[in-house]
Structures are given as structure tokens and as C-alpha cells.
Amino acid sequence: MESLRTAADAPRERILAAAATLFYRHGINATGIGELVEVAGVSKRTLYQQFASKDDLVAAYLQRATQSGRLLDRRLEQPELTPRERLLALFDPPPPTFRGCPLHNASVELTEPGHPGRAVIVAYKRRFQERVTEQARAAGARDPEALGRRLSVLFEGATALATSLDDRDAAFDHARPLARAVIEEALPTDG
Questions:
Q1: Which residue from 93, 117, 101 is spatially nearest to 164, judged by alpha carbons?
Q2: Which pTM does this prediction carry?
Q3: Which end of the chain is more exposed for a tag (fewer CB within 10 A), N or C?
Q4: Domains along the chain?
């Protein structure tokens, strides 16, 4: 893999870019420090000046992932859609480059309860459920909390299955009609 080094990029940014690419493509545990520094175009010393440990780098990578516009749950923010349509848009097929939710993928690998990345994952996933609930409330759901929980579980299941089977379309093709039924059952009929 070629280096991500450009003259304008600071070492920290190159390291985070390399981590984002390698951790998402190969996994956190399968990506070694040697490969990270090679792709980032930095020395090990520079990496450890920027991040005290690989665990700290992982936490920073996950935090960066929560702020990127590439996560599927950004569909909840599409201003041209109604709240009802945003809820259903979560279940549109993912892009061809989809290899699962980076936070979910990391949660499978980070088995140590005290890992700094776990806190990032838990906070983001809880906020995701709150955001789904907010859209359910805006759509007029009779019980927005219940709808938010159900859709969150269905969405997480679809993304995990798509990753496990390496078949992004099948999981979402099956989840979308279920999501539509759950949404329609929870929302008042248009009238």
C-alpha cells in the first residue's frame, strides 16, 4: 500500500488517515504499527509522539469516524426528506465500499472493557438510538422510544449481517420491508 504522505498533511492527520483506511479494510488487530507508519509516511517515534499507544490511536480513529460524513446513519440528517422518510432511508442499500459500521467492527475486536475506544463506541451508539428516537418523535410516532429502539436494533442487525456475509444488498433488502412495517405500525396513518 502506498504512503498517504503529502507535504501539506501534518503527521497526526496522516496517521489518522492511515488508521482509517487500514483499520476499516483489515481490522484493528490485524493492522500492525509497522504497516501504519509505512502507510502514514512517519516513523514509529512520530506515531508515539502523537498517540501514547495503539489503544489511544484506536480511540482517536473511532472518534474521527463518528464525525465523518461516511457513516450510514447520516441519512437521518437529509434535509430534503421528511422524518418518516429519514427513518426508512436508514435501510437504503449501502455504497459498494461498505464493509460494515466501523464502530461495530471495532466493538467486536475490542474485548477489553477498559479500552478507551469502548467509551467512544458506547456513547455513539447510544446517541444514534436517541437520534432515531428524535426522528420517530418528529414523525409523530405514538411511542417514539419504542420505535427508536426497534429501528436501531434492526439497523444494527442489518449492518452486522451485511458485514458478516459480505453481502450488503441482501441484509438491507430484507431489513427494509421490516423497517417499513415497523414504521407504519408505529406512526399514525396519513390522512
A1: 101
A2: 0.86
A3: C
A4: 11-51 (1.10.10.60), 70-186 (1.10.357.10)
